[in-house]
Specification:
The chain is an alpha+beta fold. It has helices at about 15-30, 70-80, and strands at about 1-10, 40-55, 55-70, 85-95. Strand 2 and strand 3 (about 55-70) form a beta hairpin. The termini are close together.
Amino acid sequence: MREYEVTIIVQPNLEEAARKELIERVTTWLTHGEGEEAQPVANHWGMRQLAYPIRKHKQGYYVFFEANLDPARVADAERNMRYVEDLLRFLVVRKED
């Protein structure tokens, strides 16, 4: 298991319920097992201004995750996030030891 930091930017015009459902879906992709320690820690940064427009959006809802994952599972999570239309951007970074 390695420690990863995952940042996602969700479309700003998404309804509250749909945004929560999307964040829960991403959380399940970043969960490596069962129990409280297997769950990633999600920090909601909220609505922020983007540095440049992405798909004609000037704002986005940011969520920052800290997760312990198997490297093979990271590739699956990235593939899943790539096909979600409501995610404007995502970034997965491995923490230094």
